[in-house]
């Protein structure tokens, strides 16, 4: 009988495409949860050419979590032949491992096209976690060399399956700070709001993914409502900004609106607390403009759902057939403004629950701790 796998007492390397900062996404949350379970976790930030050498510092969230920053040994991957890149990245990894002085039991990569061959970590278990889509036609080597893969959306799962059949759906997770608020939500279910509703949106505003044209229409059509945005909107932040003129134009538009509040990047705990005061949430992405994003899932959705408040959304494939979102029936956002307006009116009139306890319970069942348990079970069943 195969021994059950458990994330306990292990050395784990998390390979992240994002730096450590106040704005947290799945990579950061999994690192924290793994450390809280007693594992020694090294969070490898993406290479930084401005950093001096290699540095390691403990994270405030756990004494078992370390943030690793390093300067790359080389630059210009696209100009290098594959055999040379493979040699150089293996030297980069050897230097990192020698500096850290540890051998990983698990390498868990969220970062495609970086180390490519996960086997070179020499870890007993190699995981690739598809939290984001990628635009390249070829598959990253991380997928082909992983023992098991996970995906947060049907689209990502199908793409990974092209290179690794051992892939499974795992929804985004809910962090502990949102769970704490969800546990208290049912104690005081709010009454229906007035038409002067507070509308919440969380996410990097420098992304090209949002449907800026449709969002502008919605904001302009509801001057009586207050639109609150959490997330990076200045380029000097932890997340990558896009130089597309449409992005800058949208941010400038938001700054000019009297009914818009830009909160910027705030600590997760503070954002979670502020989001409890929101009457309705929304997400509106372009779902056909790029392979990089198709709107098939977002880590923010569970945070919205955990409040119990109604959520208006573009078509989100991961939630098709559920009642947790009031979403468009297909990839077109043409009727999105109408869906938004009708939902807001229905909340005020009481035709839609101001807070839905079933939604709160669904989110509470998808914490990062719960997702780790599901991942452990899948590893036990499908990794020899």
UniProtKB/TrEMBL annotation:
Entry-linked Gene3D superfamilies: Glycogen Phosphorylase B
Name used for this protein in its record: Glycosyltransferase
Origin species: Flavihumibacter petaseus NBRC 106054
Lineage start: Bacteria, Pseudomonadati, Bacteroidota, Chitinophagia, Chitinophagales
